[in-house]
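Run log // design_07
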Protein backbone atom coordinates (compact mmCIF):
# COMPACT_ATOMS: atom_id res chain seq x y z
CA UNK A 1 0.00 0.00 0.00
CA UNK A 2 1.41 3.37 -0.98
CA UNK A 3 2.04 5.99 1.73
CA UNK A 4 -0.94 8.06 0.58
CA UNK A 5 -3.21 4.99 0.56
CA UNK A 6 -1.97 3.95 3.98
CA UNK A 7 -2.55 7.42 5.40
CA UNK A 8 -6.10 7.51 4.01
CA UNK A 9 -6.85 4.03 5.34
CA UNK A 10 -5.58 4.94 8.81
CA UNK A 11 -7.90 7.94 8.85
CA UNK A 12 -10.95 5.97 7.69
CA UNK A 13 -10.14 3.04 9.98
CA UNK A 14 -10.08 5.37 12.99
CA UNK A 15 -13.46 6.72 11.91
CA UNK A 16 -14.69 3.14 11.50
CA UNK A 17 -13.66 2.14 15.03
CA UNK A 18 -15.37 5.24 16.39
CA UNK A 19 -18.58 4.44 14.51
CA UNK A 20 -18.60 0.87 15.82
CA UNK A 21 -18.18 2.13 19.37
CA UNK A 22 -20.88 4.79 19.04
CA UNK A 23 -23.27 2.19 17.59
CA UNK A 24 -22.83 0.22 20.81
CA UNK A 25 -21.28 -2.84 19.20
CA UNK A 26 -19.83 -5.41 21.58
CA UNK A 27 -16.08 -5.92 21.94
CA UNK A 28 -16.25 -9.21 20.04
CA UNK A 29 -18.22 -7.63 17.19
CA UNK A 30 -15.80 -4.71 16.96
CA UNK A 31 -12.89 -7.15 16.90
CA UNK A 32 -14.48 -9.27 14.15
CA UNK A 33 -15.66 -6.39 11.98
CA UNK A 34 -12.37 -4.48 12.19
CA UNK A 35 -10.33 -7.60 11.48
CA UNK A 36 -12.36 -8.14 8.31
CA UNK A 37 -11.75 -4.61 7.02
CA UNK A 38 -8.01 -4.91 7.73
CA UNK A 39 -7.96 -8.23 5.89
CA UNK A 40 -9.62 -6.71 2.80
CA UNK A 41 -7.14 -3.80 2.82
CA UNK A 42 -4.24 -6.26 2.96
CA UNK A 43 -5.71 -8.48 0.23
CA UNK A 44 -6.16 -5.67 -2.33
CA UNK A 45 -3.27 -3.55 -1.01
CA UNK A 46 -5.41 -0.41 -1.20
CA UNK A 47 -7.68 1.52 1.11
CA UNK A 48 -11.06 -0.23 0.83
CA UNK A 49 -13.55 2.06 -0.92
CA UNK A 50 -15.90 2.31 -3.90
CA UNK A 51 -13.07 1.28 -6.23
CA UNK A 52 -13.75 -2.29 -5.15
CA UNK A 53 -16.50 -3.76 -7.32
CA UNK A 54 -18.88 -6.58 -6.35
CA UNK A 55 -16.82 -8.88 -8.60
CA UNK A 56 -13.66 -7.92 -6.68
CA UNK A 57 -15.34 -8.75 -3.39
CA UNK A 58 -16.73 -12.04 -4.72
CA UNK A 59 -13.19 -13.02 -5.66
CA UNK A 60 -11.99 -12.00 -2.21
CA UNK A 61 -14.63 -14.06 -0.41
CA UNK A 62 -14.03 -17.06 -2.70
CA UNK A 63 -10.33 -17.01 -1.79
CA UNK A 64 -11.08 -16.44 1.90
CA UNK A 65 -13.35 -19.48 1.95
CA UNK A 66 -10.34 -21.67 1.10
CA UNK A 67 -8.78 -20.96 4.52
CA UNK A 68 -11.59 -19.69 6.77
CA UNK A 69 -15.01 -20.79 8.00
CA UNK A 70 -18.41 -19.65 6.78
CA UNK A 71 -18.93 -17.73 10.02
CA UNK A 72 -15.80 -15.69 9.24
CA UNK A 73 -17.06 -15.05 5.71
CA UNK A 74 -20.35 -13.69 7.00
CA UNK A 75 -18.65 -11.62 9.69
CA UNK A 76 -16.32 -10.01 7.14
CA UNK A 77 -19.23 -9.22 4.84
CA UNK A 78 -21.24 -7.61 7.65
CA UNK A 79 -18.18 -5.62 8.71
CA UNK A 80 -17.70 -4.33 5.16
CA UNK A 81 -21.36 -3.42 4.88
CA UNK A 82 -21.10 -1.36 8.07
CA UNK A 83 -17.90 0.27 6.79
CA UNK A 84 -19.51 1.21 3.46
CA UNK A 85 -22.58 2.71 5.12
CA UNK A 86 -21.15 4.49 8.17
CA UNK A 87 -17.65 5.43 6.99
CA UNK A 88 -17.76 5.79 3.20
CA UNK A 89 -21.40 6.91 3.22
CA UNK A 90 -21.91 4.83 0.09
CA UNK A 91 -24.59 2.40 -0.96
CA UNK A 92 -23.48 -1.16 -0.38
CA UNK A 93 -23.78 -3.47 -3.37
CA UNK A 94 -24.73 -6.67 -1.62
CA UNK A 95 -22.44 -9.60 -2.32
CA UNK A 96 -24.47 -12.80 -2.48
CA UNK A 97 -22.91 -15.66 -0.59
CA UNK A 98 -24.45 -19.10 -0.88
CA UNK A 99 -24.94 -20.70 2.50
CA UNK A 100 -23.43 -24.16 2.87
CA UNK A 101 -25.79 -27.09 3.45
CA UNK A 102 -26.60 -27.46 7.13
CA UNK A 103 -24.86 -30.35 8.79
CA UNK A 104 -24.98 -31.62 12.34
CA UNK A 105 -21.36 -32.39 13.07
CA UNK A 106 -20.32 -33.03 16.64
CA UNK A 107 -17.26 -31.03 17.75
CA UNK A 108 -14.09 -32.83 18.75
CA UNK A 109 -13.56 -33.09 22.50
CA UNK A 110 -10.24 -33.56 24.29
CA UNK A 111 -9.93 -36.10 27.09
CA UNK A 112 -8.59 -34.91 30.44
CA UNK A 113 -5.36 -36.72 29.64
CA UNK A 114 -5.03 -34.87 26.32
CA UNK A 115 -5.71 -31.53 28.02
CA UNK A 116 -2.94 -32.28 30.51
CA UNK A 117 -0.57 -33.05 27.61
CA UNK A 118 -1.45 -29.77 25.87
CA UNK A 119 -0.86 -27.77 29.05
CA UNK A 120 2.50 -29.45 29.61
CA UNK A 121 3.51 -28.76 26.01
CA UNK A 122 2.61 -25.06 26.22
CA UNK A 123 6.01 -23.44 26.58
CA UNK A 124 5.25 -19.98 27.94
CA UNK A 125 3.82 -19.93 31.45
CA UNK A 126 1.31 -17.14 30.81
CA UNK A 127 -0.25 -19.15 28.00
CA UNK A 128 -0.34 -22.37 30.02
CA UNK A 129 -2.01 -20.58 32.94
CA UNK A 130 -4.48 -18.97 30.58
CA UNK A 131 -5.44 -22.27 28.91
CA UNK A 132 -5.88 -23.94 32.30
CA UNK A 133 -8.11 -21.06 33.41
CA UNK A 134 -10.29 -21.32 30.29
CA UNK A 135 -10.74 -25.05 30.84
CA UNK A 136 -11.26 -25.06 34.60
CA UNK A 137 -13.82 -22.22 34.45
CA UNK A 138 -15.46 -22.95 31.08
CA UNK A 139 -14.87 -19.43 29.80
CA UNK A 140 -14.98 -17.97 26.33
CA UNK A 141 -11.69 -16.61 25.02
CA UNK A 142 -12.72 -12.97 25.43
CA UNK A 143 -14.15 -13.57 28.90
CA UNK A 144 -10.89 -15.05 30.16
CA UNK A 145 -8.78 -12.28 28.63
CA UNK A 146 -10.93 -9.66 30.35
CA UNK A 147 -10.63 -11.06 33.89
CA UNK A 148 -9.61 -8.24 36.23
CA UNK A 149 -8.12 -8.45 39.70
CA UNK A 150 -11.35 -7.14 41.22
CA UNK A 151 -13.40 -9.85 39.52
CA UNK A 152 -11.89 -12.57 41.70
CA UNK A 153 -13.64 -13.12 45.04
CA UNK A 154 -11.37 -15.29 47.16
CA UNK A 155 -13.75 -15.25 50.11
CA UNK A 156 -16.80 -16.46 48.18
CA UNK A 157 -14.58 -18.50 45.82
CA UNK A 158 -16.18 -17.22 42.66
CA UNK A 159 -15.38 -15.07 39.63
CA UNK A 160 -17.52 -12.26 38.29
CA UNK A 161 -17.66 -12.70 34.51
CA UNK A 162 -18.53 -9.33 33.00
CA UNK A 163 -20.07 -8.56 29.63
CA UNK A 164 -20.29 -12.13 28.40
CA UNK A 165 -22.09 -13.03 25.21
CA UNK A 166 -25.26 -10.99 24.98
CA UNK A 167 -23.65 -8.51 27.39
CA UNK A 168 -24.68 -10.61 30.35
CA UNK A 169 -22.80 -10.85 33.63
CA UNK A 170 -22.66 -14.04 35.64
CA UNK A 171 -20.88 -15.57 38.65
CA UNK A 172 -19.10 -18.90 38.34
CA UNK A 173 -17.50 -21.06 41.03
CA UNK A 174 -13.73 -20.72 41.40
CA UNK A 175 -11.92 -24.01 42.08
CA UNK A 176 -9.23 -23.77 44.75
CA UNK A 177 -6.52 -25.00 42.38
CA UNK A 178 -7.41 -22.29 39.84
CA UNK A 179 -7.51 -19.65 42.56
CA UNK A 180 -4.04 -20.59 43.82
CA UNK A 181 -2.65 -20.66 40.29
CA UNK A 182 -4.09 -17.24 39.42
CA UNK A 183 -2.72 -15.73 42.64
CA UNK A 184 0.75 -17.09 41.90
CA UNK A 185 0.62 -15.92 38.31
CA UNK A 186 -0.60 -12.43 39.23
CA UNK A 187 2.20 -12.15 41.80
CA UNK A 188 4.69 -12.58 38.94
CA UNK A 189 3.60 -9.31 37.27
CA UNK A 190 1.26 -7.48 39.74
CA UNK A 191 -0.61 -5.61 37.04
CA UNK A 192 -3.03 -3.14 38.69
CA UNK A 193 -5.97 -4.26 36.56
CA UNK A 194 -5.63 -7.39 34.44
CA UNK A 195 -4.85 -10.96 35.46
CA UNK A 196 -3.60 -11.55 31.91
CA UNK A 197 -2.07 -8.24 30.76
CA UNK A 198 -0.38 -7.67 27.43
CA UNK A 199 3.23 -8.83 27.31
CA UNK A 200 4.24 -5.71 25.38
CA UNK A 201 5.64 -3.10 27.74
CA UNK A 202 4.23 -0.25 25.67
CA UNK A 203 0.71 -1.78 25.70
CA UNK A 204 0.27 -2.67 29.36
CA UNK A 205 -3.15 -0.95 29.40
CA UNK A 206 -4.76 -3.82 27.47
CA UNK A 207 -5.15 -7.55 28.10
CA UNK A 208 -3.08 -10.27 26.47
CA UNK A 209 -3.43 -10.59 22.70
CA UNK A 210 -5.76 -13.25 21.30
CA UNK A 211 -3.40 -14.25 18.51
CA UNK A 212 -0.55 -15.19 20.80
CA UNK A 213 -2.50 -17.60 22.96
CA UNK A 214 -4.30 -19.08 19.94
CA UNK A 215 -0.99 -19.79 18.26
CA UNK A 216 0.43 -21.25 21.48
CA UNK A 217 -2.39 -23.77 21.75
CA UNK A 218 -2.14 -24.70 18.08
CA UNK A 219 1.57 -25.42 18.47
CA UNK A 220 1.02 -27.41 21.67
CA UNK A 221 -1.67 -29.58 20.06
CA UNK A 222 0.62 -30.24 17.11
CA UNK A 223 3.53 -31.14 19.40
CA UNK A 224 1.31 -33.59 21.29
CA UNK A 225 0.44 -35.25 17.98
CA UNK A 226 -3.28 -34.83 18.66
CA UNK A 227 -5.19 -35.20 15.39
CA UNK A 228 -8.39 -33.44 16.35
CA UNK A 229 -9.90 -30.18 15.14
CA UNK A 230 -9.57 -28.12 18.29
CA UNK A 231 -9.22 -24.50 19.35
CA UNK A 232 -9.31 -22.58 22.60
CA UNK A 233 -13.11 -22.72 22.48
CA UNK A 234 -12.75 -26.52 22.55
CA UNK A 235 -11.61 -26.19 26.18
CA UNK A 236 -14.97 -24.60 27.04
CA UNK A 237 -16.77 -27.51 25.36
CA UNK A 238 -14.54 -29.95 27.26
CA UNK A 239 -15.47 -28.23 30.53
CA UNK A 240 -19.18 -28.75 29.82
CA UNK A 241 -18.73 -32.31 28.54
CA UNK A 242 -16.64 -33.40 31.51
CA UNK A 243 -19.15 -31.89 33.96
CA UNK A 244 -21.94 -33.76 32.18
CA UNK A 245 -19.96 -36.99 32.39
CA UNK A 246 -19.62 -36.43 36.14
CA UNK A 247 -23.38 -36.23 36.50
CA UNK A 248 -24.07 -32.49 36.65
CA UNK A 249 -27.49 -31.70 35.19
CA UNK A 250 -27.92 -29.67 32.00
CA UNK A 251 -29.67 -26.61 33.56
CA UNK A 252 -26.74 -26.19 35.96
CA UNK A 253 -24.23 -26.44 33.11
CA UNK A 254 -26.30 -23.96 31.11
CA UNK A 255 -26.07 -21.46 33.98
CA UNK A 256 -22.32 -21.92 34.35
CA UNK A 257 -21.72 -21.39 30.63
CA UNK A 258 -24.02 -18.38 30.43
CA UNK A 259 -26.25 -19.83 27.68
CA UNK A 260 -29.75 -18.41 27.37
CA UNK A 261 -31.05 -21.52 25.59
CA UNK A 262 -30.68 -25.00 27.06
CA UNK A 263 -30.50 -26.52 23.56
CA UNK A 264 -27.14 -24.81 22.99
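design_07 sequence
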Amino acid sequence: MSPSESKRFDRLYKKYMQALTLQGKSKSTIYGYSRGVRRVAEYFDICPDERLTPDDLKRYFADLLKTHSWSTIKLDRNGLQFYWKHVLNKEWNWVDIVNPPKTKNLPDILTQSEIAQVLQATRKRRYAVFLYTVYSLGLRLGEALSICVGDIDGEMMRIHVRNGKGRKDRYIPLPKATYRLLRQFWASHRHPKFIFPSAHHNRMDIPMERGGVQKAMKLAVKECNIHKSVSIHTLRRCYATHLLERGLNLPAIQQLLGHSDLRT
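The longest strand covers residues 158-161.
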